[in-house]
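Colleagues,

For the teaching module next term, I've prepared a clean inverse folding example: a structure given as tokens, and then the sequence designed for it. I'd like students to try predicting residues themselves before seeing the answer, so please don't circulate the second half yet.
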């Protein structure tokens, strides 16, 4: 049986390439969608049955999708994604006269024609700011990538594929859920040894992903009998699609295949982009890119950690910021190394290995990790534990690999993702709070949403969901009775607040209370990079500068997604879903109407 599953994914991954379904990369902003959809669509594209795709996805578990928490929202990455996608829009269909470059500086069959010149012009002019940053980033990654490609016997210029894939950005996420500097889909990454689970995603690791990409490119080169143009196109579209295009066109000439329209738009432009990047990167001053401050090459020491360890502890022992440790280990999704992996290899700043190991040995093993084990008692449920400890039910299930909560029994141990310095997260109320508690139930009416009811009782939607055994994207049915546990009347307290604790950051606070970072910054006069100090009190509700909220009806346009609309109106995707009874993976249709609650400064 296992051989059957492995054979399926070997075939499907080679057929569909790293990206899965090919569409304009990021034409709409990247959105988190469930893994099952990506796997199914990739399989169906190649003629496999829906039943097969679903069966394989179930076999490999439910850790393959890109979590909403991992979707990038920093301005630099968003600008990278825009440059990666927008260049396709006006590229010429006909490449014109193609001249083969004879300069020995290239180790790929680089050419120049109208399509290549179009992308050169695009990167030099409209996209120059982001492209300048890509060139600077290349100094960090190219030496390592070139070395790995050389070890595999491949052309070193293939390293620049990572530039047109992600701009050398480990945080890049495509609309199809391709992730990391080499934009691997989960199935293809798994085929080449890249693991992805709740604690880490190796597709984001530049070294591991480059090794996987080199092996994948080597296989594609063999598949297309030494033709690099076709192999590179297959990295984008999948070998199955490119092979079919070759058969349909009756030629192996990439440019002729493109002229006849046998490949998708993104793939037709993929090779010209690579050759344009090579022209510029090999001689940047010729194209106006002067004074490039190339980042220093990636350098680090590696240490083996016998058990799970908090990254904050690692940073303090190395005398650096935690962000420095995170940048060296981009595969880690959480605050500590995975608890289920012994002898985990962690990268630390170069030159700190000996001092780190000496200091690390002095810390008791019980104090290195920032999670705790909890033994279930009679009456415990995941929802009650999530409510008690301020954790999402879904996170508890992923962390403990729980597929059926009803299978849990008293006496079993589960892991709670609690920082050691946040043991006070357990919910408790002061006497003043208890005086305002409204022990009540609420009958759902037509048009009600989880977010609206939670707002009425001044409580977090996640908390309301947990106390009623709901998920945040569940649709409420009129007549259902909800328990209101720990809510307060809106009039009793017009403004919710949060007291900053050690280790808090804006993103965690926003996610915990189902608001956006932008909203927190606006009502507290903060910048998204502001340093929070323990003891600070942040407003969670209210408005900036006395701004009032209003209800609008937004008509979905072509290219819109839940994520892009949330960015436009400074909202959380979960809010939009709750107001409109939508699942978070809902696909919007042009003309569809959405109810939004926005500030007066938004005119829609």
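(Answer key — instructors only)
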């Amino acid at each position: 049986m296992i051989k059957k599953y492995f054979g399926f994914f070997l075939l499907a991954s080679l057929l569909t390439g790293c990206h899965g379904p090919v569409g304009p990369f990021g034409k709409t902003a990247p959105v988190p969608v469930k893994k099952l959809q990506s796997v199914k669509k990739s399989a169906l594209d190649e003629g496999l049955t829906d039943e097969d795709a679903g069966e394989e996805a179930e076999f490999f578990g439910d850790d393959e999708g890109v979590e909403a928490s991992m979707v990038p929202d920093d301005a630099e990455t968003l600008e990278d994604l825009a440059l990666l996608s927008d260049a396709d829009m006006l590229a010429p269909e006909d490449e014109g006269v193609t001249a083969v470059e004879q300069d020995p500086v290239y180790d790929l069959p680089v050419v120049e024609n109208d399509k290549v010149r179009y992308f050169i012009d695009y990167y030099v002019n409209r996209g120059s700011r982001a492209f300048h940053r890509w060139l600077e980033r290349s100094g960090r990654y190219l030496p390592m990538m070139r070395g790995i490609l050389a070890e595999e016997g491949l052309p070193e210029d293939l390293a620049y594929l990572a530039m047109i894939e992600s701009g050398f950005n480990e945080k890049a996420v495509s609309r199809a859920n391709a992730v990391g500097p080499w934009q691997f889909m989960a199935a293809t990454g798994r085929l080449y040894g890249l693991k992805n689970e709740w604690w880490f995603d190796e597709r984001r690791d530049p070294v591991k992903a480059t090794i996987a990409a080199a092996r994948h490119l080597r296989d594609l080169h063999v598949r297309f009998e030494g033709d690099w143009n076709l192999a590179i196109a297959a990295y984008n579209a999948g070998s199955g699609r490119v092979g079919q295009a070759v058969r349909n066109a009756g030629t192996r000439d990439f440019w002729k295949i493109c002229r006849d329209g046998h490949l998708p738009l993104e793939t037709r432009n993929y090779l010209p982009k690579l050759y344009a990047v090579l022209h510029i990167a090999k001689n940047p001053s010729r194209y106006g890119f002067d004074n490039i401050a190339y980042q220093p090459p990636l350098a680090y020491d590696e240490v083996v950690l016998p058990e799970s360890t908090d990254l904050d502890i690692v940073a303090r022992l190395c005398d650096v910021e935690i962000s420095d440790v995170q940048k060296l280990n981009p595969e880690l999704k959480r605050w500590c190394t995975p608890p289920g992996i012994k002898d985990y290899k962690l990268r630390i700043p170069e030159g700190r290995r000996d001092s780190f190991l000496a200091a690390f040995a002095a810390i008791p093993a019980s104090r290195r990790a920032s999670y705790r084990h909890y033994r279930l008692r009679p009456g415990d449920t995941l929802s009650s534990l999530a409510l008690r400890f301020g954790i999402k039910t879904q996170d508890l299930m992923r962390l403990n690999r729980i597929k059926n909560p009803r299978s849990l029994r008293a006496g079993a141990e589960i892991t709670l993702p609690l920082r050691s310095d946040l043991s006070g997260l357990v919910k408790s109320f002061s006497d003043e709070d208890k005086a305002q508690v409204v022990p009540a139930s609420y009958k759902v009416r037509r048009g009600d949403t989880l977010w609206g009811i939670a707002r009425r009782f001044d409580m977090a939607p996640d908390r309301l969901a947990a106390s009623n055994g709901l998920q945040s994207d569940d649709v409420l049915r009129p007549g259902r009775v909800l328990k209101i546990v720990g809510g307060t009347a809106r009039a009793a307290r017009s403004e919710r607040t949060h007291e900053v604790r050690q280790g808090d950051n804006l993103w965690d606070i926003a996610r915990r209370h189902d608001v956006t970072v932008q909203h927190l910054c606006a009502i507290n006069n903060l910048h998204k990079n502001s340093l929070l100090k323990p003891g600070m009190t942040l407003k969670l509700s209210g408005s900036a500068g006395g701004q009032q909220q209003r209800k609008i009806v937004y008509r979905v346009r072509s290219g819109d997604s839940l994520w892009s609309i949330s960015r436009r109106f400074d909202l959380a995707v979960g809010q939009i879903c709750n107001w409109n009874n939508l699942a978070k993976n809902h696909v919007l249709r042009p003309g569809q109407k959405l109810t939004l609650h926005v500030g007066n400064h938004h005119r829609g």
